[in-house]
Amino acid sequence: MTEATQLTEMYTQCVIDTMFKLANALQFYRYNMADYDIDHLEKEFGQFLHIGARGDVKNLAIDYILGITDSTEGKQLLGRKETLLEGIVSLTEDDSPDISAKAYKALINFATDEENCQKLLNLSKYQNICIKWLKMALDRSNENADLLCKLLNNVTRPEKCADQVAKCVLDSKADLLISKMVMAFCNPTYNETSNLHYLTGVLANLSQIRDVRVQLMDKKQCIIQRILPFVEFKQSETCRTGVVATLKNCCFDIDFHDWLLGEEVDILPRLLLPLAGPEEFDEDDMEKLPVDLQYLPPDKSRESMSNIRKMLVEAIFQLCATKAGRSYIKSKNTYIIIREYHKWERSNDPRNEPAIMNLIDILIGDEPVPSMENLKAVEIPHNLMEKFKKEDEEDMKEILDEGKKEET
């Protein structure tokens, strides 16, 4: 036997031994969830969770890691070892598209609770990893852009994490990442292999932070105006949800209400149109409506997603915080659209009724005394807050009970 043959056989045997060892470890952890030992898991799998490992064993290892992220126990286990998380992050840049995609999917699963999100954002070896992920998601040629958007969407959902990411984004002033995000998902041909719909979720999460909202509503950049048409983007519920959530968050800032309701943005018709149905109104009522809501076709349908309808109502409610906002919204005959929508919603999702009734109370109620014109500035005593909360819960129970009776 030649020396070359001996070396080949030794190498082959080494590979077989490694695969056998890994297979045994996989078998053990697959059927002994209760006996998980994090140090043992790190010893068995950590050596294969890096780019320099053999492709076949890397694939087996990340396959298994992806599998355990489907369970709460598995995610908790991974969260106890930073080195394992760093290993998974390293494999997102593997040359194998299959391995990198599985690594992203494992991180997406892992980032489903706040504690795990914070761990990912604070890995020792990957400082400010969120900026790198966002830039990669905005890379026109990145085939994993949608997976990156899903990961960022999960990571930024908790407000603390959104705040951390927002600070990193806003510090990257030269890159103008907020405007780039909007430009990317507004362009259907931006990335030929990815639709970037989950990027709207990232934007919605970041818009929890006021400094991000200020940048979104920069009057010189026309960012809000670009996203308004996507309120009715029929191709994607995900995209509509993210856009409406972003707009709702922006409506919390009273300083921008006049601008949002004014001619430059004209947000009210955009928020009302998805709530409008095919109902006909008399000539007088019709003329008071915004032009976009007049003489709608007989086949006009309302927004199909209940959570989006609720956010639209809540956004209009926020715009009613000041006397000027209330006066404008009432002058556009908003009430008749909400009235008909309320009738329709009672048989579709009665859980939205409290939000609708809050808005109706403002639209048909008397104006508060001058000292209370700014509803956001009114301080409500704690005992009254508790009373209102209890009444809301009782009303909701009654509404749901009525719905059950009707179904029966």
TrEMBL record:
It comes from Potamilus streckersoni. Residues 138-310 form the Protein HGH1 N-terminal domain. Residues 389-408 are annotated as: Disordered. Residues 315-368 form the Protein HGH1 C-terminal domain. It comes from the Eukaryota. This is Protein HGH1 homolog. Belongs to the HGH1 family.
